[in-house]
Amino acid sequence: MWGKTGIRNVSRPAAVAAALCSALFGATLALPIAPAASAATTYWSFDNAKRGCLESTASGTVFEGACDSGNVQQDWYWTGSMNSQGRRMLASRVSGRCLATDIKSGLNQANAVWTSFTCDADARGQRWRFDYNGIDTYGQFDSGYGTALRTSPGLPESVYSDEFTTTVALDYYYWSTSLSG
Description:
By secondary structure, this protein is mainly beta. It is 8% helix and 30% strand.
């Protein structure tokens, strides 16, 4: 950087042109200025009690994989305002896309989970709440549909949402969380 002009990311010729324009014509020239720094984002990772960590690809696929503190595909952050049920959107660090589900298979059936290209605060399937169960270090994800996020006993890497059922052990619905990144 050359000299202390108070203007960042501007070449010397552009700064000189702006100063001349202002002095000669009483006008100012719009110049690009670096955006102000924002508060640091807090990233979280979620580790399933029976399987691995919640993970997302840039293309929207959600799965569980072996936990790795250096894997940014396992980093998530809460975004948007909290609604009256205490739910917010959960976005993937690698894509900025929001965790989503539906109930197309039925409330008590395994429903798809993905990250949506558009984060929509009004979409029930994109609103999540993470609640600790009060007994140990695990909690559960509750969607806007009242379904819970879980891994699969029979299909490693698979992530679904459904109502708690007696056919799937509760540990598949339980997640621990930690700060990441």
